[in-house]
Design goal:
The structure holds 2 protein chains of 2 kinds. Helix content of chain A is 35%, strand content 0%. Chain A is mainly alpha-helical. Chain A has one domain. Chain A is globular, with a radius of gyration of 13 Å. The two termini of chain A are 18 Å apart. The relative contact order of chain A is 0.20. Chain B is mainly β. Chain B has one domain: Immunoglobulin-like (Sandwich). In chain B, strands 1, 2, 3, 6, 7, 8, 9, 10, 11, 12, 13, 14, 15 and 16 form a 14-stranded mixed sheet that branches. In chain B, a hairpin with a 6-residue loop joins strand 4 and strand 5. The N and C termini of chain B lie far apart (87 Å). Classes of the chains: A mainly alpha, B mainly beta. The interface between A and B is medium-sized, with 25 and 38 residues.
C-alpha cells in the first residue's frame, strides 16, 4: 500500500487512493526526496476518527477532507490538503 | 416454412458457436525486476545524457506462489520516473520533468497530463523483445541543479492471450548503480532513507 503510485497513468485504478488512509494514520514520513511516491508528512489520525468522518452527507473525497479537517485537528492537519492533492483529490 | 426452418437452424447454430464468454482466470502475480542508471556519475554536464535501462526475461518467479511463470504478451508494463530538483538550501523538492529532454531507445518515456504531478513524473513503458521485457530511455540535461530520480514499481493490467486477466506487479529496483546517497545526506542533513526509497532513488548534479 505504501508503494501505491497515484501517478502511474497505466494503472486503471489509480483514481482509488489506496494509500491515503494509511498515510493519514502511519507515523512514517515518506518523502519524494527519499524516493517515495508521495510526500507524507501527516500522521496520528485514528481509524475511529477517519471512520466517524464518513457521514451520510459525504459524497466526495473533497467533502471528506473538509469534514476531517473541520472535526479532527492534530499537529499535522496543515499537511492534509497537500496529501490529498498528491492522490489527485 | 422452409425458409423459417433454415433461419431458426442458422440462429441456433450461431448461438451455440458464440456460446457464453469463458470465465476469466484472475491472477495477480508479483515479480521482481532490476534496473540500472548509466553512467552513474555524481555530476554530469548540461547536454549530457544519462540512461535508465532495465531488462528481464518474460519467465519470472511469482513471489506469492514461488512458481515460475511465463508472463509473455503483456498488454503493457508501465512504470513511472519521478524527476525532482532540490534548490540549494531548500528541503522541498520541485517538479523538474522539463529540465530534461527525453529519448526512447527501447520501450518509451512520455508525459501524461492526467496525473496529479505531470510536471514531476514521466511515464515508462517496457517493450517485449525476444523473450525479454526491455526499457532503455535517456534523459538529456538542460538545466544545472541538484536532481533526484525516483523509479516507480511496474504494473501490467493483463495479457494478449487467452489468460487475458492475469495482472502483474513488478518491484523494480535500481541495482549495480552508485546511487550517490551521500549527495542527499549533504543536501538535507538528517534525512532518513527507508528501504523502499533506497531501491528506487538516484541522486546527481548537473553543472
Amino acid at each position: 500500500m505504501e508503494n501505491f503510485d497515484p501517478n502511474l497513468s497505466t494503472d486503471h485504478f489509480k483514481w482509488i487512493p489506496k494509500g491515503l488512509f494509511y498515510d493519514l494514520l502511519d507515523p512514517a514520513n515518506e518523502t519524494l526526496l527519499a524516493g517515495n511516491p508521495v510526500n507524507d508528512y501527516v500522521s496520528g489520525y485514528t481509524n475511529a476518527q477517519m471512520f466517524s468522518t464518513f457521514q451520510s452527507n459525504i459524497y466526495t473525497l473533497q467533502d471528506y477532507r473538509a469534514r476531517l479537517l473541520q472535526t479532527v485537528a492534530n499537529t499535522t492537519s496543515s499537511q492534509v490538503t497537500g496529501l490529498f492533492a498528491q492522490y489527485h483529490y | 416454412m422452409k425458409n423459417l426452418i433454415v433461419s431458426v437452424t442458422l440462429l441456433i447454430v450461431a448461438v451455440i458457436n458464440s456460446g457464453c464468454p469463458k470465465p476469466c482466470i484472475e491472477a495477480n502475480y508479483s515479480f521482481a525486476a532490476n534496473s540500472q542508471i548509466t553512467p552513474d556519475l555524481d555530476s554530469v554536464k548540461v547536454g549530457d545524457t544519462i540512461f535508465l535501462t532495465s531488462s528481464f526475461s518474460t519467465k519470472l518467479t511469482d513471489h506469492a506462489s514461488g512458481q515460475m511463470i511465463d508472463y509473455g504478451n503483456s498488454t503493457g508494463i508501465g512504470s513511472t520516473l519521478a524527476v525532482s530538483n532540490l534548490p540549494i538550501g531548500d528541503t522541498i523538492a520541485k517538479d523538474a520533468v522539463f529540465n530534461f529532454d527525453y529519448t526512447s531507445l527501447s520501450g518509451r518515456v512520455y508525459n501524461d497530463r492526467n496525473i496529479p504531478r505531470p510536471d514531476g513524473v514521466q511515464q515508462l513503458t517496457y517493450q517485449e523483445i525476444g523473450g525479454n521485457y526491455v526499457l532503455k530511455v535517456g534523459l538529456i540535461a538542460k538545466q544545472t541543479g541538484n536532481y533526484i530520480l525516483g523509479l516507480g514499481d511496474g504494473l501490467s493490467n493483463g495479457r494478449n492471450t487467452s489468460r487475458s486477466c492475469e495482472k502483474a506487479s513488478f518491484n523494480i529496483s535500481i541495482n549495480n548503480t552508485n546511487q550517490h546517497f551521500y549527495l542527499i545526506e549533504n543536501w538535507v542533513p538528517g534525512i532518513i532513507l527507508n528501504d523502499y526509497g533506497k531501491k528506487h532513488v538516484y541522486y546527481f548534479k548537473v553543472y
